[in-house]
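Issue 218. Parser rejects a valid record. Input:
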Amino acid sequence: MSDGQRLWPGKFNHRWILWPPAVVLAVLLFAGGPGYHSLRSVQALWNLGHIVAFSLWTYLLVTWSRVEEYSPLRQRALGIAFCMVAGAGSEWIQSWIGRDASLGDVLRDVAGGWLTLSFFAPSAKSFSRHARRATGALAVFFLVVACLPLATALFDEAASRSRFPVLSDFETPFEKSRWEGGARYSVDTTIARRGKSSLRVDMDTSLYSGVSLVYFPRKWTGYRALVIDVLNPSPDPLDIRCRIHDKRHEEGERQTQDRFNRFYRLPPGWNEIRIDLDDVANAPKDRAMDLENIRAVGLFAMKLPAPRSMYVDSVRLE
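Output the parser choked on:
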């Protein structure tokens, strides 16, 4: 019996038992996965699958009879090279089949390989105790860093649920991750209408420039209005648009008449944007918007003659 077969005595006695999950993981690398607006925790958990996959594949590589004959150092170099080349190659392929390539995924691939080389590979025992401790500590560090997005997502999702009907007021950590957009945006702790923080949005002169709130409790039934506090810090009025859409719009043709759109001219200072949810429900041309499955709230400017800023605070339902 080889060292590779003795790794998990009585549980995995043959390498071939590992091949079915290895093949399944290879398929999942290019198919399936959470949707664009799935919970951030689900997306982060899915991304951790890269660590599992490359840990398993690296184990199969270094326990292959031909590779087992290599020196421990050569096995380690081969394992890392495999993770880097296969990881980068898979991301390149994904970019060509309509999926997003990610450097973070490549780093998770390498972390998975390093985890196996540090703890599970039979050759790991060939290194000195100090070397094993160092490589093991590095593997644990990689694993902790890789799990941080999952931890922060779970924390913010719990905060979001507990503070509903407040959708975002920037008073808890990690709220910035609820937002997306082409404009530059950051949490500002010097300006706020309520609490201590707001979201500063720096818009440029592109066709559309702004931000969207995309992670929040989706069910808005039972409330009358969406309220948003927006500061225009300039002495000149600021023209912005607010758009709201639901799941059906997102999965359909995304036509303008199938969502809520409204223009607002904001004078200098703080402004309260109050949107009646009946107006939101009746906004689509040929249907009612699904207030039980709202997907995004956007605030943006169009074709600004010069860069402008605004501050967003206390996005809430009333």
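Fixed in the parser; the record now loads. The chain has two domains: 3-160, 168-317.
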